[in-house]
Amino acid sequence: MKRYRTRKRRTKRLPAAFENGKEVVYSQRIGNLRKRDVLIVRARQVSRIQRFPYFISDQIVISTRPTSTRPNPVGRRNVSRVGTVTETNGFNCTLGPSAFSSPCVGVKAGMARVQRVAKTGSGHAKPLYVNLVSRGFPKLIQARGSYPPVRILDRGHLEITRLRADRR
């Protein structure tokens, strides 16, 4: 068993996005993977909004780049669940009293299994990245205007536990 953990944010803001607008908030490099390894992933993100309620969505994906907002072909081919650790879902972050009032805490957890070892062109094992991907969508039906971004506070993290399968 090996643990990886990062608190380093790749972005501090999520732009108001009516279409796409996904950003990698946390990314962790995982090397030395073997077939049948299991990755247990937990993420915590703390977001602050201003002026307007937002829908904040999160997903955890596996790719060969720390900037990928979706699984690339290597992640889809070599990791179970076609390179995703969790589904995309989210919550309404509000300014008033609610279960998710600003600052909002989002928690994600999931697992994936390495089906094949990703290799470089020279045959060496290729490291993969586990990325927490987020998006902020303003909850208004008004005309699109200038909306403040969602601020990502420094109280979150991404944690991966790699479980190694017995060699048989």
What does this structure look like?
This protein is mostly beta strands. The protein has a single domain (2-163), classed as Jelly Rolls. 4% of the residues lie in helices and 43% in strands. The protein has 1 helix and 10 strands. It has one helix spanning 73-78, and strands at 2-6, 13-14, 23-30, 38-48, 54-63, 89-93, 104-113, 128-138, 150-152, 157-163. The strands form 2 sheets. Strands 1, 2, 4, 7, 9 and 10 form a 6-stranded antiparallel beta sheet that branches. The protein has a 4-stranded antiparallel beta sheet with strand order 3-8-5-6. The chain is elongated, with a radius of gyration of 17 Å.
How do the helices and strands line up, and which of them pair or pack?
Elements: E1 2-6, E2 13-14, E3 23-30, E4 38-48, E5 54-63, H1 73-78, E6 89-93, E7 104-113, E8 128-138, E9 150-152, E10 157-163
Antiparallel strand pairs: 1-10, 2-9, 3-8, 4-7, 4-9, 4-10, 5-6, 5-8
List keywords for this structure.
168 residues, mainly beta, Jelly Rolls, 4-stranded antiparallel β-sheet, 4% helix
Please sum up the structure shown:
The chain has one helix at 73-78, and strands at 2-6, 13-14, 23-30, 38-48, 54-63, 89-93, 104-113, 128-138, 150-152, 157-163. It is mainly β and 168 residues long.
